[in-house]
Amino acid sequence: MNTHQHTGHGPIAAKVAHRTAVAAETGRFVAAVQDADPAAAVPSCPGWTLADLIKHTGSVQRWFSVLLRARIQEPPRTREVDLRLPEQEDGYADWLAESATVAEEAFAATDPNLPMWAWGADQHARFWARRMLFETLLHRVDAELALGRRPVVDRPLAVDGIDEFLVNLPFAGFFAPKVTNLRAPDKTILFRTTDGDDAWLIRLRRDGFGSDTAHPGAVPADATVQGSAADLLLLVYGRLTWDGEAFAHEGDEQLLADWFANSAF
Question: Domains of the chain by range and CATH?
């Protein structure tokens, strides 16, 4: 039960052009930080500055681009990549824009349906474009929050991002070890959008967890959280809290507390 069918319309991923969305989200990110102080703190990433956030996002784009060009068929043995990072932090915004161009060139050279190793559920090149998109989008949001702005996340992207997170979370234990604590004797958590008919039912078992693809939203859950797609995306990534004003929740509060204490990556 490690895959999820988006309710109502088939897989939402088919509606999102991940490769072009990477460029668009990077453009938003660059616009946000172009004239900002690189030393500004990023409260949603404790201990990070804007410079750290930009460097991380551009590094991910360049690293994933290396993997795509290599068409890797097994886990990489090294993460070394020539970042071409400028010496001065005030050049980081332009460098991030160039990182998106590096990614665009890697996408152009790689069939998205090419079989490739990936750490998540989808063992194709398209996994890396989708993962890159949500790394970029989430950290664009972090930058805007740090600058006191109210981030806007396009609804189709938010729905796809929730799906991408929940589909891949069962595989994330090697770098997010608390994920292995997500187990319970047949408990369920339902995430439902209030601005659409999207629903994800997570079933926790004694040996782990996964998305229930057969009846998402059609069966009573032990705990339910409802909110807009954009807010639910920020919730699953820990940028909002389930007991905050943005959400309605019902059912087993301890189950929800345990889920969010162990599901961050």
Answer: 16-152 (1.20.120.450), 159-262 (3.30.1050.10)
